[in-house]
Amino acid sequence: MNHFSNSNAYVEKFALGQGDLHFAVKDTLDVAGYATQAGCRALASASPASTMHRW
Amino acid sequence: MNTLLNQHCVLLGKTTLHELAFGVTGINPWSGTPLNSQYPALIPGGSSSGSAAAVAAGDVDFSIGTDTGGSVRLPAACCGILGLKPTYGLLSRQGVMPAQSSLDCVGLFARKAGVLRQVLSRLAIQPGNRLLTLPAIGVISAAAPSIDALIHQVLEQAGAALHPVLLPELDEAYLAGMTLISHENWQAFHPLLALDGISDDVATRLRAGETVSAAALAQAERVRQSFSARLDTLLERTPLLALATLPKLPPTLGEARDPLSMVSLTKLVRPFNLSGHPAISIPIGEIDGRPVALQLVANKGLDPLLVDAAEYLLARLR
């Protein structure tokens, strides 16, 4: 399921991991290597997160 | 997230949201307003707008959002998909913005209940058994009459034993939830007000949190205790409570231009952030071409029951 619709839902697209279920995550959860900007221009220059959100 | 990546899940991206997750329309000129693919004239809902829209559009099998005052269940209802707010504390908030919250839960969106079951099981949350019948349900009429009527009809057709329940405490629980989120968001985000780049609407609502008094916080905590105890008592009688996710039909993008008037859309979802009970929003039909969603609430820790009940209901709606 790697084709994207015109949902305009994303701030970043990439592919991490391998498997049978594809998912996306709100930009308030840290993904290592990507800045968490929370939809806010005041966080436009935030540094990339160093660690992943943990369960 | 690492758990999911190690459990055969592929992360395809980060999704847009209502600015600072502090708003319910999902309209965001800076990071993008997602398309509500089934209902293009309507708001996607927020705050987890992009995560809901990505699932509704079929981009991904499931997505992750956060729900502090309805931010998973509300966009799920607007986009016509499932949205689960788990029991408070069930899923870790380590690495979630804001770092501290007494209300916020990491939650899940999917089109199919079976996918939610798979995801919970990959997160080591033991799934329930498939239901052969629905358990008894306490039904709370709290939305527009046409919405409550549709909910009643769907539950009746599914063969559930329905028990009318009065829960006037929803109103004070909603207000207590508003008091706490106002205070907690001020604490989390007020340093950002010194920077350029917060929209006027969000800045105004953040500043309102500065003046929440200690007495108001203490009162909100008292309501949290009493409302949570009231729900526990009701759930001893029926394992599930049912009410609408939204008190009215979701607005169009045009109708939603006044963001302050939209906050009341969280009237029926925010109380369960206050209490910490798990709740799921289930799409059950349409009125006037707009989606209607049912919310089910269960005892704390019985999240799998919500997924099983959603699966049972969806199978009977088709």
Poorly predicted ranges of chain A: none
> What is the strand tally of chain B?
9
CATH superfamily of chain B: Amidase signature (AS) domain
Strand content of chain A: 15-25%
Number of domains of chain B: 1
| Structural Rg of chain A | 12 Å
**What integer is the average pLDDT of chain B?**
96
What is the succession of H and E elements of chain A?
EE
CATH topology of chain B: Amidase signature (AS) enzymes
Residue runs with pLDDT of under 50 for 5 or more positions of chain B: none
CATH class of chain B: Alpha Beta
Q: How many strands, which pairing sense, and closed or not: the largest β-sheet of chain B?
A: 8 strands, mixed
CA-atom Rg of chain B in angstroms? 18 Å
**How many H/I helical runs of chain A?**
0
Question: How big a fraction of the residues of chain B is strand?
Answer: 15-25%
Shape of chain B: globular
User: Share of helix among residues of chain A?
Assistant: under 10%
What does this structure look like?
The complex is a heterodimer of chains A (55) and B (318). Chain A has one domain. Chain A is built from no helices and two strands. Chain A has strands at 10-16, 21-26. In chain A, 42% of the residues are buried. The model of chain A has no long low-confidence stretch (mean pLDDT 91). Chain B is an alpha+beta fold. Chain B has a single domain (2-317), classed as Amidase signature (AS) domain (Amidase signature (AS) enzymes, Alpha-Beta Complex), CATH 3.90.1300. In chain B, strands 2-4-3-8-9-7-5-6 form an eight-stranded mixed β-sheet, with helices on both faces. Chain B is globular, with a radius of gyration of 18 Å. The two termini of chain B are 33 Å apart. In chain B, 55% of the residues are buried. The interface between A and B is large, with 47 and 65 residues.
